[in-house]
Known about the structure:
The complex is a heterodimer.
Chain A: H1 48-55, E1 63-65, H2 81-93, H3 95-102, E2 115-116, H4 126-133, H5 143-146, H6 155-168, E3 180-183, H7 186-197, E4 203-208, H8 213-220, E5 225-230, H9 247-259, E6 264-270, H10 282-294, E7 298-302, E8 331-336, H11 337-340, E9 349-353, H12 356-364, H13 373-384, H14 386-415, E10 419-420, E11 427-431, H15 441-453, E12 456-457, E13 459-460, E14 471-475, H16 480-502, H17 506-509
Parallel strand pairs in A: 2-12, 4-5, 4-6, 6-7, 7-8
Antiparallel strand pairs in A: 1-5, 3-9, 8-9, 10-11, 11-14, 13-14
Chain B: H1 2-13, E1 21-25, E2 47-48, H2 50-66, H3 72-83, E3 89-90, H4 104-111, H5 119-127, H6 129-134, E4 137-141, H7 180-215, H8 227-252, H9 278-289, H10 292-296, H11 303-324, E5 337-338, H12 348-356, H13 365-368, H14 377-390, E6 402-405, H15 408-419, E7 425-430, H16 434-442, E8 447-452, H17 469-481, E9 486-492, H18 504-516, E10 520-524, E11 553-558, H19 559-562, E12 571-575, H20 578-585, H21 595-606, H22 608-636, E13 641-642, E14 649-653, H23 663-675, E15 678-679, E16 681-682, E17 693-697, H24 702-738, H25 743-764
Parallel strand pairs in B: 5-15, 7-8, 7-9, 9-10, 10-11
Antiparallel strand pairs in B: 1-4, 2-3, 6-12, 11-12, 13-14, 14-17, 16-17
Protein name (chain A): 1-aminocyclopropane-1-carboxylate synthase-like protein 1 isoform X1
Amino acid sequence: MPRPRPSSPYSARSPSPMFTLPQKESRKPTTCPGSVSTRGLHSIYGDGLEREAARKPDQKLLYGVGDPTAMFSSDSPHLSSRGSIIKWFWDSAEEGYRTYHMDEYDEDKNPGGIINLGTSENKLCFDLLSRRLSHSDMLRVEPSLLQYPDWRGHLFLREEVASFLSFYCKSPAPLKPENVVVLNGCASLFSALATVLCEVGEAFLIPAPYYGAITQHVYLYGNVRLVCVYLDSEVTGLETHPFQLTVDKLEMALQGAISEGVKVKGLILINPQNPLGDIYSPGELREYLEFAKRHALHVMVDEVYMLSVFEESVGYRSVLSLEGLPDPQKTHVMWATSKDFGMSGLRFGTLYTENQDVATAVASLCRYHGLSGFVQYQMAQLLRDRDWINQVYLPENHARLKAAHTYVSEELRALGVPFLSHGAGFFIWVDLRKFLPEATFEEERLLWRRFLENKVLLSFGKAFECKEPGWFRLVFSDKAHRLRLGMQRIRQVLEGKSQVAEDPPSCQTQEPRGPHR
Amino acid sequence: MPERAWEEGGVEGGNKSAQQIWILILPLRFYSCATLPKASNFSAPGVISKRSWEHGCRAELDGARRDPAVSASSVASLPRARATRAGRWLLWEGGPVLCPPFFRPLTCAFSASALSFPHQEGKQGFGDPFWRSHATVVVVGAPALCRRGSSQPDEAHMSIQSRSNPSDIPHMSDGQVWDQASRNHSIHTCLMEMVLSLQQAVADHITQLATRHQQQDLVPEEQGHNQPIWGQEALLGRLMFQMVNHLQFGATGGQKFQPPCPSEDSKGDVRSREQAQVSKQIYKIFYQLTNFEDTSINYVLSNRGVETSALYHGSFQDYNTYQGNKYHEDKNTSGFINLGTSENKLCTDLLTERLSRSDMNYIDDDLLQYSDWRGQPFLREEVAQFLTYYCKAPAPLDPENVVVLNGCSSVFSALATVLCDPGEAFLVPTPTYSDFVFSAHLYAKVDLVPVDLESQVSDANTHPFQLTVDKLEQALLNAKLEGKKVRGLVLINPQNPLGHIYSQDSLMEYLEFAKKHSLHVIIDEIYMLSVFDESITFRSVLSMESLPDPNKTHMIWGTSKDFGISGFRFGTLYTHNKEVALAMSSFGYLHGISGITQYKLHRLLQDREWIDNVYLPTNHSRLQEAHRFITNELKSSKIPFLSHGSGLYVWISLRKYLDPCTFEEELLLHRRFLDKKLILSCGKTFMCKEPGWFRLVFAATPLLLKHAMQRFYTVLVEQEQDWVVKQLEDAINQEVEDLPASDASQSYSREVILTSGLEGCCSDLGL
């Protein structure tokens, strides 16, 4: 069935409040809704998206031009306007995370603390990693590591990264070290790419739901926005699975953004997808790349979960493995050790691009995204150790991920909760829509609070710009005992909650309480 | 009016070819360190002989191709353009070149050979401070453009437009102050020209299409287009791009408009006496080499991306060259010696030993996970204690006020972002640390308003480069008059590059000044433990009992200099302002430090015993020794310098070697040092107002320093010789013109003077 084309394109928020700092860089004299401090009239959770959805329940949102500051309200005497917004980012986005940090679960010291199934971290293989990183070959200290480096990254590391990616991405030809730029994590990479590819106020397309932190990464310095390509859980027409990304949807979102006067410079793809766990087939990937080429868009492919595909039946293909990319000069690949090696605290990310202009421009910003020489050395040692990776680390990591995944999916089935998962990544995309008394993001947030009150931290769909309220991301890559406890707490909330949904009066009396309060 | 001059030229020529102006943008690399022709090959300053030009082209062509912002066509065409000329090219050296955003349309314009060049735009572009400090621009004009050109119509001329005005200091500022009228005028004229060109191009295109259809209307749309039509379309595309870019550029008001200086004054305005139709040839070359792909590649990056690249590579080119060819005692004795980057390499042995100890190699789950983005709590606590102790804070500092990021550049960049909106400004006494100039500009887009200090000692200036409140007031007032919004004051203490230490009283005065105008004060104390002269007492701002405005005083420190571990990437902010600390935390994502590194730093800072008993005494005594060596050398060669017993550098004046004393000459001297594989930092990069100052880093091993000083002297001797030769040539030329008589006696006397001159300068240098 062809998607109903709306007579007039409408956006998540209309009129789209374009964020313009009081500055001269802003190229567009239009839609500047006054000073930033006057905005933020929206209620805390009820933003445009929700109102739109509520008002037109039949029509589907096809895209939305993101406005990271829609809910921004406070201004500070000591900070600049953008400084106030940046602080507000910190205050709002980190809420759950900070609550968690104040009350972290610890088996012995704080058994009643919060279990974090919200942050996508692999906590299953610290033993392997600690052992490997304490190995004597890691401990070399050389004077050159103490001094200012080549800002692209030490050559020895870039060589290692190139050969590592050639091997694991199965590239048709060996990748070149000069196309590699090393920085302190993919967040920095998003920031740097946004800055060098876009002007202030321009945008990237991104299929939503997506890893929400990207919004902030591209916005903080770059002032670049994201145009969401909304995907549906409902399978319609020729689609084969929920939340399927099609070229039609990309086209429509792009046209919609253009009609609003937003200049789109690129497309961000996350493969394996976060939070859906989808994997794009080579055919799909090529279609998206062709689409981007048609519209002269850059494509940033974030493959940060590429080695966390634990289901062997899933044939994952890196974009670097494709023969004859449609537009190699505009295809930029990111990878990091945060997920695949479970070392998010290590801050190591890398860019692979054949475009020397882009590589050089990103490297110019690496002054601000530098990585300690030691860590560079250790990373080179780690990536070089193919034996350990292939024979020890990857098999063990995959086996543990699989076990954890099996446990959590069994639990969810037992609870009668629908979910999506494709054997990749650390998370399951859980459909809790039936637990919301009303399909609003407010209710979603309330449910999330309930989880938090019951000492389990999840991520709610709104944080991923999912347009349907009621989806949650549940991270399963944690130790068995914590996972068990976490699932138990989730069950408590849902069982309490599901009763609520079926039998509203009892909700007042049977407020779910965790056993540890 | 310079525009008049051009227009007159056009009228004189009176035909279409007269309006063609070719602009070649030469990357600095064309005659960067390795290939810069020796000054002896120069027939006059800035003139390069054919031989050295070829040499430069050959050696650098590959490198330049890879250069992001130099379009392939412009680079590729250079050697050929050169080949068409037998004689000399006069090149104006202003510094490294890469295309800033607004230049992209120009590159296109000259590639699109059929265009008449929008010269007003060119002038505006080159009048821009950026260009004046970063450009090597050769304008090759058609005959009519050379006002003093010979009467022969087919003679080719080249005129070089230099916008380098010695008295101007490059601002990194985006002025909003430029004359509205002239701005509008120039944009208008440019646009008109573009529209006309576009009109012409469209007309041509249609004609071509029409003829083509007549020729072969059988297959209307097979295979798309043939070559000429394709070329036409490319041209149209470029024109459109150019116009759009120009509109955007004009609309942003981001560039400071500088009325171009009249070409009569321009040192480089010469004409060539060479034969032949150069312009025609160049025309051909461009036409052949121009290819839409080549030029469109630049559009991959955003304007700010191109600018970032340009700014960075313009400024760190020497550093990159150094990275590729470092001096090594045994392995590479002909490599570059870097006394330009302020790094302490005297204590690597101590640090290597300390960092190899077993307590450093601890790995914990926590270190591998996402941490608090402000920095691991254990590190922030350690930093608070460390600063309490070494800054002698009256009360223990609060770990909650500590933000930890990967380097002081990052701290400054993030801080500038949260304190200023784009286009707002900080006051900064100059000369100042060049990195702040970039950090303010690259991400944060914050301007720096220089508070120019003078070397001359006077009543108001009791010591060279003294900072006084009067000067601050004056600079602030000027900035306000120019419509700049100043949000803060940046101080470096101990000062870089001067080595000054602010006394507590003067510091207090500056802080009071800031409070009076409600300015933030960012005070960078990154050299606080590198005060090696014991007679000097350094007082940190954190040691003050009561700060005038604690909520607006922010202190930056890092381990890069004091511990000589710049490769560690660690910088920290201490601020009493919780809001600022929280806003800074958002940048933890982008400027985060590895958990493992955080742990090592924590151990290092914790080991007070090692720091106090081993590291600091050794470091200071080694710094003293190196400092003594350098200052003795400088004294014996009578080179004036400033140094105050702190920091890793001395600030030296080489003004007497510059003739005339301009920034161009400073840059030439700098290149000469590079030629001899010695890297120093020249005063201009510190935004110093007076040409001729250099910063020399002495924190290197004695052997390296000795080598470096040898190279240093060689250059100075050469410089003096050249000066003498030039004086003589000038004198001789003068005489020849005055009195064209006996050649023999001329050359004789010349030789005599030359020899005696050389002896003189050698003895001056104590050689």
